[in-house]
Batch of 2 targets.
Target 1
Amino acid sequence: MATIKDVAKELGISVSTVSRALNNHPDIKEQTKKEILEVIKRLNYTPNALARGLIHKKTNTIGLMIPDIADPFFSEIANGVEEVLTEVGYQVVYGNTMRNPDKEKLFLSSAKERQMDGLIVTPNFMDEKLLEQFQRLQIPVVFLRRRSPEGLAAPFVDVDHYKGACMAMEHLIGLGHRHIGFIGMPELSFLAELRYQGYVDTMHAHGLTPNPNAITRGGRTIAHGREAMSRICEQNKDLTAIFAANDLLAIGALEWLAIQGIPVPEKMSVVGFDNLEVASLHWIKLTTIAQPRKQMGEEAARIIDRMIREETYQAQSVFFEPELIQRNTCREV
Amino acid sequence: MATIKDVAKELGISVSTVSRALNNHPDIKEQTKKEILEVIKRLNYTPNALARGLIHKKTNTIGLMIPDIADPFFSEIANGVEEVLTEVGYQVVYGNTMRNPDKEKLFLSSAKERQMDGLIVTPNFMDEKLLEQFQRLQIPVVFLRRRSPEGLAAPFVDVDHYKGACMAMEHLIGLGHRHIGFIGMPELSFLAELRYQGYVDTMHAHGLTPNPNAITRGGRTIAHGREAMSRICEQNKDLTAIFAANDLLAIGALEWLAIQGIPVPEKMSVVGFDNLEVASLHWIKLTTIAQPRKQMGEEAARIIDRMIREETYQAQSVFFEPELIQRNTCREV
DNA sequence: CTGAAAGCGCTTACAG
DNA sequence: CTGAAAGCGCTTACAG
């Protein structure tokens, strides 16, 4: 590949001058600049971003560490992030961790080695080693869709998962439901815990007792929802409603109910969480809790951008409000 | 951030020695190495990948340029790519182009500036400027889910879209359908054209004439499918089947049919293309053409890796076979 | 307006 | 086994 030296040599001038032409420096003769630009084109020269980055101590790169880009939840967040960040000249590097702790650690090391300017992260589970890595990072970080861990002065952008779960439960209880089951995500997950707590606390707040037989935890897929629904239904004949901790689980539950011929919402009410696109499909029309996913991504991007530009900026965390989206899977009893 | 100089100074030794410890060079005393490693840990030192890249002329970075990471089609491809590439030590940088020609060009420039080692790309529409950019790139490229353009000696990994479309049509015609509509994607798209050709050619091959009123082109979303189905149905009372150029369009069509109370497959048969997850949902069970998406991503990754490692490697293009997945949206007439 | 020199943070022959 | 020096491709004071 051609370097700045090649184009300088070609014209018998110094690299400083070529550099000036490249960077639109005012101290350069129009004619010289024109000649340089021509040679650049002819030699197919492109400035080397590594060399530039080394000098400027800036790479214009932001890392986005998320559990699974194929999860529609995160791909929309990612789009929000990317949209605002490319607008201001950054390239975003995705780190797909598949919720694998080793991959999370690997991505953080890589981010540091590669001198990324900032990081937007959704770690799945925060153990001590990961926390230490964050503390040693020396790169601005914002947490996305989860709160920042204790002992780390990083802002976060999140939705109030606990409140969202409470809203779902209040809706069900408000409709007269008393026997409400819960299909949850794996316990070690941060937000699985919050949504579960919302379920339990709201039950208690209304003098209801969560029935351990009507609670299942441990998955996040449609297949899991199907299985969980079948298990719960068989053990709880008096159940009239289900709160699923995410939409995929809810859809799995709906599938099982449809296959069994149990009509929704006549015999069973279902509420999900996330408001994925698929939830609004004609056959599903799931009542669920919406999070402004794209907005969350955009906000995180804006914060990291500002943190990088203003070293003294004390970023505030942002809580987005969840919203109940009423569709056709609930009825009054 | 600490540099190699800092750790050298700390121990009163030269940077060369520190570098040797870092790179597991054999010519170094065990004791010295141990001391260096300790200081590295204490100073929280991480080698600077930019500096390394500058010297080695390698960044261990691969660009993946795709139209839309939130499109489940591409997110699965992306996962396949990432899986094999991270395994061999690369970081993959996504370029979400949203089918915007400017973004495609921007990403290619960026890739060159950043000295990416290789590129896997799915450009949406290949105009002259883009082609020229590819020709000037000087970076190994493999095309994914579309063929490489003429005038560029780059391999591709693709599925035979034309054949897939023919398979869908043969299935329908084999079931006795004669009046078959087509819901297509925007005409400028590369594969939209191929799938459309498959529709037209198969009709002709069976002595059938495609009816312009039963053909619609121009979208790729569920909303579009809904609208297209309504338009086609209103103008073609004798229609018994629809071939939709992708699953989202097919699902939109199914939605409209469901809303109108037109039973599928009793009154209307529908075939899609892509075999998205959502196509197998209990309420949809769409008959469609499957492409081995993840495998395609993996294969592209393997090819680019080998192209980078072996300069003389003459990569062969790979065609994956499409497959008809029969579910519940077609019947014999 | 232009060039020579130093430096960004590292690696790698070369000499000892 | 260790260090001094050159160099990767650029930018940026500084001098002229």
Target 2
Amino acid sequence: MSERPSTPVHVTLDVVARRAGVSLATASRALNGTTRVREDLRRRVRAAADLLGYIPNAHAQALASASNNTVGLICHDVGDPYFAAIAGGVMRAAAEQDLLVMLASTFREPAREIAYVSTLRAQRARAILLIGSGFQDRAWERALAAELEPYLRAGGRVAVVSRHRTLRVDAVLPENRAGAAALAQALLALGHREFAVLSGPPELTTVTDRLAGFREGLAQGGITLGPDRVVHGAFTREGGHAAARELLARSTGPTCVFAVTDVMAVGALAAFREAGVQVPQDISLAGFDDIPLVRELTPPLTTVALPLTAMGQEVIALALREPRGPRSRVLRVGGEVVLRASTAPPATPLTGRTS
Amino acid sequence: MSERPSTPVHVTLDVVARRAGVSLATASRALNGTTRVREDLRRRVRAAADLLGYIPNAHAQALASASNNTVGLICHDVGDPYFAAIAGGVMRAAAEQDLLVMLASTFREPAREIAYVSTLRAQRARAILLIGSGFQDRAWERALAAELEPYLRAGGRVAVVSRHRTLRVDAVLPENRAGAAALAQALLALGHREFAVLSGPPELTTVTDRLAGFREGLAQGGITLGPDRVVHGAFTREGGHAAARELLARSTGPTCVFAVTDVMAVGALAAFREAGVQVPQDISLAGFDDIPLVRELTPPLTTVALPLTAMGQEVIALALREPRGPRSRVLRVGGEVVLRASTAPPATPLTGRTS
DNA sequence: CTCCTCTGGGAAAACGCTTTCAGAAAGCGC
DNA sequence: GCGCTTTCTGAAAGCGTTTTCCCAGAGGAG
């Protein structure tokens, strides 16, 4: 019967070698070009390989040579434009260096993150890239560090983007504080005095940094942010939407709102629109990140622009750069305040009014 | 000196086995749970493995067991929100099934696509997922098919999303024609009679399908689309932008524009804004796909909504579904016309006027 | 012509696991 | 007590490469 496949599933190197009339060893050397092989033999092997459609088994190669050209990329959710943009940069750089990227989305579950690190360790990935804010939960971060530490010792490379430095690894860090501070100043310069912040989960380091920076910037203008002016929400469009609604419900009357993330700002914009609050006439809105589509919004969103694609390219370069000295390297990338139409001077110039 | 690492880099299974006082075989069985192992031995092995921080070598496992739980995902560019959304769905499904996803971005170069298929073959990926329109270039498609065919014969699974059926593989196909036709009808119903299309590269099948569908829909209303009313551009925001400018330059005065892709529509919207053309007052604009942010635009974009995340989940399910009968399966997903504020009745009701 | 150094090729030993194949131990009916 | 299953365990044979290690032969020097 045709039950049992008579043809072996994959062409292996020794078939190629036999066909070319050389030994297995020579065939391997001919194809990899590590050692000199007589030119005619090399050609015979190549011809046989092509003829037979030989595809080397990457697992066998990795096992035998203990080498590997895959890197792991762990982010919260590739579907999110922020991560997608960074991932795009990583892919670009990976393609140039013939690296294969194993992608992992944690969907914001710390346990999944750790599990993925473990999986990538098992895959003997050359590098593990962690994109995005870590979890403030001490226990998880420790567990992660414990998982990463033996990997590093075994020669693995780890680099992070936008993640707090609890881990001693190379990092691409946006200037969250400075960027938020600069934004605050720009908003002050527009004449705003009454601010509110749509903040993300307070356990994310990115959030605390941006919040702190924003406060610093405001402080330069003598403004402080009352606790009733900070609303926390999830790091998503819906989170921003809900936070904005909550803010409106409190009706403390800020003239300017800073959403710590563009994605949240998008949700906030929708919430404002639904509530009949006009941006920027009634309220100014600013975000952070400059993800691809926010400049297309109406009004286009004022934000702090981060070079997301470049950050993706940098993080992989950083991870793979050879002289991994004793100390970890940090590449700080500046955020540039981009004033767009979502921010404008406040409607009523509040000259020296005390709330 | 401390030159040579005295500690072996990785803990291997036989170290674990020795530590637990059992044989290599038993240790393997204890950890994998394939065969019954006496409970106390199993516990000893587990304890030893945990103590030593044992991480199995996935390559060795794959080699020895000829199994593998990785799938490859090939798309044009993960940075593009369209692909990002689908990839997000794939990741979700993959996480649930403990599959590791190897991601590849072709950056729209056919050669790279084929190279990636080859790489994924070498990795012995369980499945290869191709997302996005194929290349019309016959030679490339043939080369791709030639690369895929032995993979399929070797038991590999291939599934595509939104890719023309030159390949005999499982597919998730959006109803491009029907969706575009429905959109055309909806636009006709608004009262439009003068249309234009911002089309993508004519060699992409998605483009031709949507264009044909749109024409069909218009034909129902007795409208035909002159060649001067179709502008081709790249499948990107910039492509849409350029195409829209070109259209305006031709000044043939359509009241309604259909961009075959939301991403292009976004570019068009920007171009219109720059040119002082108001949407929808001066011109109505519609897209296709319903990528995440277009509902947030002002005006929110009328489009044909595709369940992108679900499509990603479906394609991986399709690829892995067991009874791969002789014929390939096709999952058609409908596009739903979503009328938003970017379309409105034309300013001047053109009652029966002939251009 | 012999000895020595190179070059290049083949045999075989890893690489770290899974899995087959027996064999030992234990339980059971008679 | 004896044979017969049943369970488990261990030895060893792969899986498909790379990479020693070693040897044959070629070429040069003396």
